[in-house]
Design goal:
With 189 residues, this protein is mainly β. It is built from two helices and 14 strands. The chain has two domains: 61 residues, no CATH class; 124 residues, Immunoglobulin-like, CATH 2.60.40.
Length: 189
């Protein structure tokens, strides 16, 4: 959601609704589900979303610009979301994930594990000179993705997003990327 908001040119600011969950019985607009929007529970203990929010602040806590028109993704025809940004310190951040498939009613109980996998190649508008770093949504470091001077190659799995950071020192000269539209995805020619 953060990547989609940051990629929209009309969005200039976004904020978290609540830091703490509200206690049971608190008056809210909506129902009891609206009590648990915090990143801390009612006792102040961190919830998993706290680490994800902290990672977003580390990534986007400075001016950014979208590189949406300057990157290309393949394979075409695969349901992959990729958003790239350049921070004011020249670090490039790429967020990639597989969109959640629509559920067919009724949803299975318990839900089946998401076993989808896609290898996505993100072509870059510059020469890549060294390995980018790879993190999960909470900011935990993962082994570096495969890469070459033209692209980063990501193995996306299920509902797990990939967060790639490319240091300014790893960026070489700018280069052009030819893109064409095919279906709903962009492909490299």
């Amino acid at each position: 959601m953060t990547a989609l908001a940051a990629a929209a040119p009309s969005v200039q600011l976004f904020a978290w609704y609540r830091i703490h969950d509200l206690p049971p019985g608190a008056t809210v607009i909506g129902d009891e589900n609206d009590l648990a929007f915090g990143v801390l529970d009612t006792a102040g203990a961190p919830k998993p979303a706290r680490d994800a929010l902290a990672h977003v602040v580390r990534l986007f806590g400075r001016p950014i610009r979208s590189l949406a028109t300057r990157v290309a993704t393949r394979p075409a025809g695969q349901p992959v979301e990729v958003h790239a940004f350049e921070r004011s310190d020249a670090v490039v951040v790429i967020l990639a994930w597989l969109p959640t498939p629509p559920l067919s009613p009724p949803a299975p109980e318990p839900p089946e594990p998401d076993r989808r996998t896609v290898r996505a190649t993100v072509a870059l508008p510059f020469v890549l000179r060294c390995a980018p770093s790879l993190h999960d949504a909470a900011g935990n470091k993962r082994p570096p993705p495969d890469w070459d001077e033209a692209a980063v190659h990501l193995d996306l799995e299920g509902a797990s997003p990939a967060v790639v950071a490319i240091a300014a020192a790893c960026r070489g000269p700018e280069k052009a990327i030819t893109k064409t539209r095919e279906g709903e995805n962009t492909k490299i020619e």
